[in-house]
Amino acid sequence: MPVLPTLSIPALDLETGCTTRDYIETLTKPSGSLGRLEALAVQLAEITADPFPVVTPPGVLVFAADHGVAVEGVSAFPQEVTAQMVQNFLNGGAAINVFSNRIGARLHIVDIGVASDVDGEGLIRKKIRYGTANFIQEDAMTHHEALQAVETGYKQAEEFIHQGIKTLIPGEMGIGNTTASSAILAAISGKDISTLIGQGSGISREKVLYKRQVIEKALSERNPDRSDPIDVLAKLGGLEIAGMAGAMLAATTNRIPILIDGFICTTAALIAKKISDRATDYMMVGHRSAETGHGTAIQLLEKKPLLDLGLRLGEGSGAAVAFPILESASLMVSEMATFASAGVSNQEKRNEPEG
Ligand SMILES: O=C(O)c1ccc[n+]([C@@H]2O[C@H](COP(=O)([O-])O)[C@@H](O)[C@H]2O)c1
Ligand SMILES: Cc1cc2nc[nH]c2cc1C
């Protein structure tokens, strides 16, 4: 049964958030001294409706797909790297494998649209088509395929959640997907394209200018309807971006916090926001990517990143690196002693006026 027509995202549980906020005031520390961790803990309580929110184990869900626009030479790498990296994920050798292990995350890899046949133990095979079409020449995919990709992402995340994950980290792999992401951001924001494009996997300055021309041509040829996120996905791609947006929506309906990764993941988050404004209540942004447009994308999402380490890898890697911050916020609430339980005086020291 299609999920989008009946999508119902619960409102944040503000009352539980208040309970947690008041409880944090009783912990053995000066009021407000754990800064953003305190705000994070309150947001987690509002999301989960649990005054002692639990965020472990996290689940990393990486969607892999190809982009027809890669033939225009907009990436520093050839298209076959998408399939090769999927094998690397399955073999455990990619950054996201290492960082997932570090945080005790479960990791699932979904082929939602790689341009060649890929297989391997553990791969979730949900290929909707062999890559998108080149959006300079024709729509990246049909409206039906875009919807199918969102629904596939939704179902994969829901299954993961039923298996017990408590935080969703969506990730992606797709040569050419920074071009699709910049095009989507330009389409939905109406902002100047120059603030939204960058070096992606490492192209030269000259190539960034060419990438800009490709996107401008595509936008004028395709003319996506910015009020319709499925039309934007269908015209510009990509299958992994649609999959991530669907996965995020599944997390929201199940009261699961979402830790957003870099540029492409944030673009998917903005698509999810277009589908339902409430979706962003459930999101935190793990890091600010070095990709030029990411700052603007985060602003459009109205979020503040947790880290700024100059990363620009994708795969969910930056969010995985940021996850211990979320865990610290959660453990602060569940494991710290209160002033009463520890027998620590809880009176502000007043400086009496002299004389
Ligand atoms: O997450 C990011 O901020 C990010 C920024 C630049 C590149 N990437 C990754 O690099 C690939 C896309 O780069 P490109 O140049 O092929 O468009 C794709 O597999 C992404 O996961 C990811
Ligand atoms: C090698 C490589 C690894 C990646 N991981 C995510 N995107 C990537 C792009 C490239 C090129």
Automatic annotation (TrEMBL):
It catalyses: 5,6-dimethylbenzimidazole + nicotinate beta-D-ribonucleotide = alpha-ribazole 5'-phosphate + nicotinate + H(+). Keywords: Cobalamin biosynthesis, Glycosyltransferase, Transferase. InterPro entries: Nict_dMeBzImd_PRibTrfase (IPR003200), Nict_dMeBzImd_PRibTrfase_bact (IPR017846), Nict_dMeBzImd_PRibTrfase_N (IPR023195), Nict_dMeBzImd_PRibTrfase_sf (IPR036087). The keyword Glycosyltransferase applies. GO terms for biological process: cobalamin biosynthetic process. Pfam families: DBI_PRT. Its EC number is 2.4.2.21. The active site is at residue 315. Transmembrane segments: none annotated. Gene3D superfamilies: 1.10.1610.10, 3.40.50.10210. Pathway: Nucleoside biosynthesis; alpha-ribazole biosynthesis; alpha-ribazole from 5,6-dimethylbenzimidazole: step 1/2. It is an enzyme of class 2 (transferase). GO terms for molecular function: nicotinate-nucleotide-dimethylbenzimidazole phosphoribosyltransferase activity. Catalyzes the synthesis of alpha-ribazole-5'-phosphate from nicotinate mononucleotide (NAMN) and 5,6-dimethylbenzimidazole (DMB). PANTHER family: NICOTINATE-NUCLEOTIDE--DIMETHYLBENZIMIDAZOLE PHOSPHORIBOSYLTRANSFERASE (PTHR43463:SF1). HAMAP family: CobT (MF_00230). This is Nicotinate-nucleotide--dimethylbenzimidazole phosphoribosyltransferase.
